[in-house]
Amino acid sequence: MKKIALAAMILGMAGVLGACSMDGDGAAKTTGGTTVAQGTSQEEKGQKEKAGEGEEQTDTSGAGKSIAGIVFQEDQFFKLMSAGYEAAAKDLGYEIQLSNVTNDQMKETELVNTYTAQGVAGIAISPLSATISPEALKVSSDKGVKICVANTAMDSYPFSIAAYTSDNYAFCKQTGEIAVDFIKEKYGDEKIELGILQFKTQIPETSAERVNGFLAALDEGGVNYEIVSNQDAWLQDTAIAKAGDMLAANPDIDIMFAANDGGTIGAVMAVENAGQAGKTYVFGTDASEQIVDLLKADNDILQAVTGQDPFQIGYKTVETLVQSIEGKDVADQGKTVIVEGIPLRRGDTKQLDDFMSDLKSKM
């Protein structure tokens, strides 16, 4: 009987060890996992581990089916990207831990390191910096964690499976082309004063691409303009203050261009607060429920935006990440894939309503 008990104990130990093995990429596969978006409790995890001891394990939980999704800002764009991450993970049977680093580079690095140490199979991420973010992600990749980046190109992330993003220059040029028609109709060949809100101290490359795309459309359209103020403000409250100061110093600004969601909303509110409705018009970037409301508002301030499709960007990033984790062929391997922008303009009620219906279905 002692021999039988000893054999049973050895088999039980083998089962425990078998629940934490290394896959071909060196990523730990554990049945325990870590805290996940679905809210699996520590008690439930313990029960799963206990039930699995001594049994042959299938890859239905733990690191083999656990991934992480990271964004860097609290706004509608990144909420939709996170929703895309989560929807893809759910459709593909994966648990996903979602995090927002709130523009904190150190927090991003710490999270990447933590997820790597926990043994997640992969990380989907919209990285904060093209110069700093690659360092921690490369270390994670070298340790066998699959990486797929969003909202950026492959250039700084050669270890990423693929990259899904918008063409920042092209979609802001679309907004600029709408602005050209508006300016020509309203001002003719008159020289206009232009104010700009961007985010060059946050992500200089992306900010420059967006502003340059908008200005290229004005140049190609033969618009006569002077940039009288060019400020940094990408969060709504900051943008209200900066745009307000801009208008106080330059009350004759005809057109304001904002390079992101927060800047766009802040610019519109600043124009209204300053009593400049009907004098200063805003063209912006990104699309959300609030921005659609502003395009429909009677104050006639916001004229057009080109929205990105962050949900689709997030969904495709996780979908490709999982394909790579599971060893499947990845059609987009090594590519930067452009997800087309969505131009929205004042007066096109059907388009705005259709966009909102689609947006609400994803939230």
Number of helices: 12
Q: State which percent range the strand residues make up.
A: 15-25%
What is the strand arrangement across the widest sheet? Answer: 4-3-5-6-7-13
DSSP summary, beta strand count: 14
CATH topology of the largest domain: Rossmann fold
Named CATH architecture of the largest domain: 3-Layer(aba) Sandwich
Specify the overall morphology: elongated
Q: From the helix content, strand content and strand pairing, which structural class follows?
A: alpha/beta
Sheet with the most strands, sense and barrel status: 6 strands, parallel
Radius of gyration: 25 Å
Task: Write down the CATH class of the largest domain.
Answer: Alpha Beta
> Whole-number average pLDDT?
86
Order of helices and strands: HEEHEHEHEHEEHEHEHEHEHEHEEH
Topology:
Elements lengths: L1 H17 L1 E3 L5 E3 L11 H11 L13 E6 L4 H16 L3 E6 L4 H14 L3 E4 L7 H10 L3 E5 L12 E3 L2 H20 L4 E7 L5 H17 L4 E8 L3 H14 L5 E4 L2 H13 L7 E5 L3 H8 L5 E6 L2 H16 L10 E3 L3 E4 L3 H14 L1
Parallel strand pairs: 3-4, 3-5, 5-6, 6-7, 7-13, 8-9, 8-10, 10-11, 11-12
Antiparallel strand pairs: 1-2, 12-14
Subcellular location: Cell envelope
Main location: other
InterPro entries: Bact_Solute-Bind_Prot2 (IPR050555), Peripla_BP_I (IPR028082), SBP_2_dom (IPR025997)
Give a verbal description of the structure.
The chain has 363 residues and is α/β, with parallel strands linked by helices. It has two domains: 64-165 and 308-339, 3-Layer(aba) Sandwich (Rossmann fold); 166-305, Rossmann fold, CATH 3.40.50. 47% of the residues lie in helices and 18% in strands. The chain has twelve helices and 14 strands. It has helices spanning 2-18, 42-52, 76-91, 105-118, 133-142, 168-187, 204-220, 236-249, 261-273, 289-296, 310-325, 349-362, and strands at 20-22, 28-30, 66-71, 95-100, 122-125, 146-150, 163-165, 192-198, 225-232, 255-258, 281-285, 302-307, 336-338, 342-345. Strands 4-3-5-6-7-13 form a six-stranded parallel β-sheet, sandwiched between helices. Strands 9-8-10-11-12-14 form a six-stranded mixed β-sheet, with helices on both faces. Strands 1-2 form a two-stranded antiparallel ribbon. Helix 6 packs parallel to helix 7, helix 8 (236-249) crosses helix 9 and helix 10 (289-296) runs antiparallel to helix 12 (349-362). The model is unreliable at 1-62 (pLDDT under 50).
